[in-house]
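lol forgot to send this yesterday, sorry. struct tokens for the thing we talked abt
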């Protein structure tokens, strides 16, 4: 396996700390259903060198609590904290129509519906009110676009682009900036 930049090795979570004294570990899962992280088979570190076989034993807030083969006490469990967890792309189910894995969106070029280049998708953010595409490049300061069918009517993974139809006011400069121009 290759490293974190390998498109065939995808991050699905991170060990976030120990729970209890028997070696249980909390995982912040990046999967739609947090417990699905245990359904993909073994997990790997970012270099693809360390293999983690896990079994879910509970929940803690928005995280899952797992038992990791070979980890038997709190000290060993604490040593895993911060380790990102990866799976081979082929371990994940194929995305349904109009569903996308975030990592497939990152790097796509972004164009306005009128054909103007806006930049590229740098990240997919979620601040609690749904997903946003973070566009960087052509727009000073970047642009956060709601990832909805109305604002992003075209997602062409094969073609390497998204088409943006921004809601009114999204691309307007802040009032102070507009006055200063």
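and heres what i got for the seq, position by position
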């Amino acid at each position: 396996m290759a490293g974190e930049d390998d498109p065939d090795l995808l991050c699905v979570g991170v060990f976030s700390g120990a729970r209890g004294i028997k070696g249980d570990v909390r995982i912040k899962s990046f999967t739609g259903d947090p417990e699905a992280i245990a359904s993909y088979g073994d997990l790997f570190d970012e270099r693809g060198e360390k293999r983690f076989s896990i079994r879910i034993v509970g929940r803690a807030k928005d995280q899952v609590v797992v038992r990791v083969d070979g980890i038997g006490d709190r000290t060993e469990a604490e040593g895993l904290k911060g380790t990102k967890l990866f799976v081979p792309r082929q371990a994940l189910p194929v995305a349904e129509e109009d569903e996308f894995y975030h990592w497939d969106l990152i790097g796509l070029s972004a164009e306005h519906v009128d054909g103007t280049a806006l930049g590229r998708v740098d990240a997919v953010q979620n601040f609690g009110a749904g997903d946003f595409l973070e566009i960087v490049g052509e727009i000073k300061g970047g642009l956060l676009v709601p990832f909805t069918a109305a604002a992003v009517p075209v997602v062409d993974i094969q073609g390497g682009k998204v088409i943006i139809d921004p809601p009114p006011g999204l691309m307007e400069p802040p009032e102070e900036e507009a006055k200063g121009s």
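The helical segments are 74-78, 102-105, 175-180. anyway ping me if u want another try
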